Amino acid sequence: MHLGIDIGGTKTDAVVVDTTGRIRARHRRPSGRGGDAVVGAALESARTACADAGVRPDEVTVGIGTPGAVVDGIVTHAVNLGVDSLDLASEFGAGWGGRPLVDNDVNVAALGAWTLTGGPGRSMAYLNLGTGLAAGLVLDGKVWRGARGAAGEIGHISVDPAGPVGSDGLPGGLETYASGSGLALQWGVDGATAADVVEAAAAGDARAREICGRAYYGLASCVRVLVLTLDVDEVVVGGGMTAWGEDLIHGATSILDAWAGASPFLASLQLAERMRPLGLDLPVAAVGAAMLGGGRG
């Protein structure tokens, strides 16, 4: 059996799964803020999930997904957890009795999405549209991290040098176009969220509709970039922005279809058909963390 823990900015989600990724138990609780609280919440969620599954801690492998940069189990720059640097593998291991494998949350979500959505022979990009924007890549059944761990950081690709400037100081970045923080940044209203922009667009606000149009273009561009660079079988779209619903997918599909109509080569790639939305209720990051701990990825 495998235990997976997804540490998020607001909640910590722990699951116990079998070797196929089938969930046997799940427990969620608020995440802590600061190193000690983060580790404490992860340990409590893990213990409860194991108890609910009827397994002892020494009967499961352990994997953890977390925001921030991860090298050798050490997490840095996890701003939404209040963590500058935390040796998560060692600190959790001390309380658990065994050292877990730890990776970035988008990478483990990619592994979880790959596990839950079908055939083992597929290559896949998991495109996470949340507060930020990045992709996790699964090639030949393994997460591809790149030479310096930056594979999939496509949010920093600029698609319009005259576009709105993002938080990274670059104009027209994909993260600015199609992430929750990017929509809120473009809207420019203190305390506003991406949902406020979508609501204003639905009510007919011209500027909000323009921002939403950029989001459709941004999602379509992400799919195009991922397929053209890696030729993955499919791009699975997940993250909080998918709560927007069918309008987001339909808007991006219309742009992909227009590109296909203009380019026989792009038409041959069937970009729209290779984009697949993922249900919000699937705990892909926790399942992926469990698979990581079990030797996948």
UniProtKB/TrEMBL annotation:
InterPro entries: ATPase_NBD, ROK. It holds the Pfam family ROK. It comes from the Bacteria. GO terms for molecular function: kinase activity. The keyword Transferase applies. Keywords: Kinase, Transferase. Belongs to the ROK (NagC/XylR) family. PANTHER family: BIFUNCTIONAL UDP-N-ACETYLGLUCOSAMINE 2-EPIMERASE_N-ACETYLMANNOSAMINE KINASE (PTHR18964:SF149), ROK (REPRESSOR, ORF, KINASE) FAMILY (PTHR18964). This is Sugar kinase of the NBD/HSP70 family, may contain an N-terminal HTH domain. It comes from Demequina mangrovi.
